[in-house]
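Anyone able to model this chain together with adenosine-5'-diphosphate?
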Amino acid sequence: MDRLPVQTNYTAKMGRLLAEHFGVPVEELPDRLDNHLLRVDISYPRPVNEDGTIEFDWWGAGWDTRTEGYWHSFAPLKDSRDLDRLAWPNPEAAGLLDAAVRTISARGADTFVVPNLGMCLFERAWSLRGFEAVMMDMIERPEWVEELLDRIAASQIALSKRFVAAGVDGGYFGDDYGAQRSMLFSPRLWRRLIKPRLAAMFAVFLDAGLPVILHSDGDIRAILPDLVEIGLTTLNPVQPEVLEHIWLSREYGSKLSFYGGISTQDVLPTGNAEVIRAATIACARQLAPGGTGLLLGPSHRMQSDIPPRSGTRCWRPSMRQERVARLFKEKFGGEPALWSRAPGRVDLMGSHTDYNLGFVLTLSISRDTWVAARPREDRIVRLYSANLDSRESFDLRAIAVRGNSGARWGDYPRGVAWALAAERLPLGGFDGVIHSTVPIRSGLSSSAALECAVAVMFRALGGWEMSGERLARLCQRAENEYVGMNCGILDQFSSCLGRAGCALLLDCRDLSTRPVRLAEGIRAVICDTKSPRELVGGEYGARRARCEEGAALLGVRALRDATMAHVATLSGEVRKRCEFIVGENERVLAMSDALAAGDRGAIGRLCAESFAGARDLYEICSPSMLTMMEAMMAAPGAIGARQAGAGFGGCMVAFVETGKTDEVAAATSEDYNKKTGLTPEIYPVEAADGAALMPVV
Ligand code: ADP
Ligand code: MG
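re: yes, here you go
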């Protein structure tokens, strides 16, 4: 695993603030926050009192609707201990799990679904009877409390069994037993009243081979051995102010995993970026010293006292930075001084149009390549690629000219140095770690991301200025002439000039670009067939040659200048290839309009035409791509789908209704896997900014 999974929960009010902050609908937040745990609930009507100030839960307890969360305001057993008079809910009722079952069947590959069995036992008892009252009952009439708890536990067990049968991945129970400095009541009483019943509830999941998460706030050190004994797998929320992380890890690290850890009492509401980052890193180091065993997140649902910025900026980038900084120390010693990044890209329309000097609509994606570097006194460049676990180095005074076949990954950064040196730009040596989340050789252009991130680093270290356009062209030159891969300008332009929130319409003749703001409600989803391709030379070169032949026969400089009427005069393979390019070029402009307007009908039609042409005319579709196309289009919520990159396997792209990405991913993945035996990787992407230095958060 390259990073720790994260999980950010929030109250309804905080959810609205976060959604506003990101500019996405609330239902997209889990995805946007990269959440891995999905809690499913029972569905039931939630009645309110006359003036709407109290909402009643499934068990009949009332909650104040004017607060952000947890203000208890009605206890049905307040005035009577007659348990038979309470209208106990029926855990076997039909329909209770309908919504949960839908979610479970649509879950994505990275999602872990658990039932939300919050307020499961002690909390359920006090919510029915009243907090003070039940505390008194526990002393004065523990037998009655046992009876109450037995009834609650019976319901929870029945519900748990239904959830297990519905296919959840584990159990999630919530029950607070701790206050800030001690247990709420004695461990002895807990062992008598709570432990046996909680054990029976855990057992439903454990017996099915599933893990169990327990959320309990407060200082519950006294009962941790008991929780381990009854089979607890994961402890939440490990508040740093009450359970010291170093101690927890030393005493329980081999017996429990942890979930939570970042303080919502202190760090998140009050800390600046630096404080949050330091707390996040400390938490990860202490609770996951081996790099696993922690689902990192706030130590409670975030409430609106946390600035949305603080709640979102912290761990995702910082975890990756922490990992890369650690690698830097390991490989070179000390710390990196500068960081650069450059995104991969996916073409939304316009396959193979770039070298025909036509149009392409491209998206710079939220997957990118980083270079973390420290300048050297000499002119040596030493690099370590975390993705390939491989070192390369070269001397800037002796960069061999040409003749390299791209056989070594070092040829890409070395080629960039060569192209920049040819412009007489001063270059300085550095030690650098490369870390990329762009899949390599899958058609999302990891090569351009690497080149552009390296070029930006040379520019920063050399202290010279250069526009993104020119930098992109030099990177292309590096790949064309040094690596020997005859790619068009698309990849490098996209990596250098992308803009968050927009696709980029690129005219490959005059190299002008226009941002195309994408309509709300549609997301691009990458569907990686996981069938890799080989492209340097081979088929790619052959396609390019046919296009040049066609242009020569037609007497135009490039196919960009040809029309369908022209193409009709050609014959054979050249005609087929040219027909695709001319049609595809027209589709790029139409697709830009369709995506900007959110015209789903046009998007679907253009994608279908593009794919049909790629399959029948340009012949760049592998069998796995045909299968993936079928799977993508059969998924409910898919608007359109097509090839991406150069074809011959690798990634494809689907356009999906926002909010349906999980469902589309699940359905596509299952269908494709059934037919090919391959496990595809499917994930939504966002439009990211182009290559630049990166602030260290
Ligand atoms: P893509 O479609 O991903 O651009 P290419 O074949 O054009 O595929 O480029 C992939 C090559 O780029 C790799 O084989 C490797 O040499 C180089 N490369 C890309 N990313 C990295 C990385 N993170 N570390 C080292 N080399 C990389
Ligand atoms: Mg490439």
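Residues 445, 447-448, 491 surround magnesium ion (ligand 2) (CB under 6 Å).
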